[in-house]
C-alpha cells in the first residue's frame, strides 16, 4: 500500500492519521469529562488537565499534516458513487470535522492564554496567544465548550455514516479507510 492516497483508496499516511486522531480525540474528551474522579488541587487532577491540553494541542499540530495529505494526492472515490446530494452533505461534514480539529484546540490555547496560565506541551511551554483578559477568557471558554459539545454529535454522525455505507449501502467507503483491506 502506498503512503499517498490513490484514486481507489487512502494511503498509509491518511489512514494512520485518521485512527491516531480518533484515539487522541477520545483521550482529550476522556481527560476533561473524567477529571472529576480526582479531587481539586490533586496531582491526578493536574495530570488529567495537562494531558487534555497537550493531546488537544497535538491534534492541532497533526491536522495540518492530514490536510496536506489531502491536497497533495487525490481523495479516493466511493464506489458505487453516492447521489450528488449525499456527496455534498459528506463534504460539509468533513469541513465541520476539520473545523472542530482546528478551532477547539485553538480556542483552548486562547482561553489558557487569556487566563494567564501556562500552556504545557510535552516538557515545553508554548507562548500565550493573547494577554491576560478575564472577559475574553470567559468568551473563549464558552465557545470552546459549545464547539466541543457539538463535536460529540458530529463524530457520532460521522461514525454512523461509516456504518451506513458499510452495512446498508455496501460500498467501499469504510474499507478505503481500513488498514490492510483491499
Ligand atoms: C480537539 C481538542 C479539544 C477538545 C475536543 C476539547 C474538549 C473539551 C471539553 C469537552 C471540555 C469540558 C467542558 C465541560 O466542562 O463541560 C473542555 C474544557 C477545557 N479545555 Fe478543552 N478540548 C480540546 C483542546 C483543548 C486545548 C488544546 C486546550 C488548551 C491548550 C484546552 C483547554 C481547556 C480548558 C482550560 C478547559 C476548562 C477546564 C476546567 O474547567 O478547568 N482544550 N475541553
List the helices and strands and how they pair.
Layout: H1 12-33, H2 43-72, H3 84-115, E1 119-121, E2 124-126, H4 134-169
Helix pairs in contact: 1-2, 2-3, 3-4
The structure holds protoporphyrin IX containing FE.
Question: How would you sum up this structure in a few lines?
Answer:
This protein is mostly helical and 182 residues long. It has helices spanning 12-33, 43-72, 84-115, 134-169, and strands spanning 119-121, 124-126.
Q: Describe it for me?
A:
- The chain is mostly helical and 182 residues long.
- The chain has one domain: Fumarate Reductase Cytochrome B subunit.
- 66% of the residues lie in helices and 3% in strands.
- It has four helices and two strands, in the order αααββα.
- A two-stranded antiparallel sheet has the order 1-2.
- Helix 1 packs antiparallel against helix 2, helix 2 (43-72) packs across helix 3 and helix 3 (84-115) runs antiparallel to helix 4 (134-169).
- The longest helix is centred in the last third of the chain and has 36 residues, at 134-169.
- The radius of gyration is 19 Å and the shape is elongated.
- It starts with 11 loop residues before the first helix and ends in a 13-residue tail after the last helix.
- The protein binds protoporphyrin IX containing FE.
- Protoporphyrin IX containing FE (HEM) is lined by residues 25, 28-29, 32, 52-53, 56-57, 59, 101, 104-105, 108-109, 111-112, 119, 144-145, 148, 151.
Amino acid at each position: 500500500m502506498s503512503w499517498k492516497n490513490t484514486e481507489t483508496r487512502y494511503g498509509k499516511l491518511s489512514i494512520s492519521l485518521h485512527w491516531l486522531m480518533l484515539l487522541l480525540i477520545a483521550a482529550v474528551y476522556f481527560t476533561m469529562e473524567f477529571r472529576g474522579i480526582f479531587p481539586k488541587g490533586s496531582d491526578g487532577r493536574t495530570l488529567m488537565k495537562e494531558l487534555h491540553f497537550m493531546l488537544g494541542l497535538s491534534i492541532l499540530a497533526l491536522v495540518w499534516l492530514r490536510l496536506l495529505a489531502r491536497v497533495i494526492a487525490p481523495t479516493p472515490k466511493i464506489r458505487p458513487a453516492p447521489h450528488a446530494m449525499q456527496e455534498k452533505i459528506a463534504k460539509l461534514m468533513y469541513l465541520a470535522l476539520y473545523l472542530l480539529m482546528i478551532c477547539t484546540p485553538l480556542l483552548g490555547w486562547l482561553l489558557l492564554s487569556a487566563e494567564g496560565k501556562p500552556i504545557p506541551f510535552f516538557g515545553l511551554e508554548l507562548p500565550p496567544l493573547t494577554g491576560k483578559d478575564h472577559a475574553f477568557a470567559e468568551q473563549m471558554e464558552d465557545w470552546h465548550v459549545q464547539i466541543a459539545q457539538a463535536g460529540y454529535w458530529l463524530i457520532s454522525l460521522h461514525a454512523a455514516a461509516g456504518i451506513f455505507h458499510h452495512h446498508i449501502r455496501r460500498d467501499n467507503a469504510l474499507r478505503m479507510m481500513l488498514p490492510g483491506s483491499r
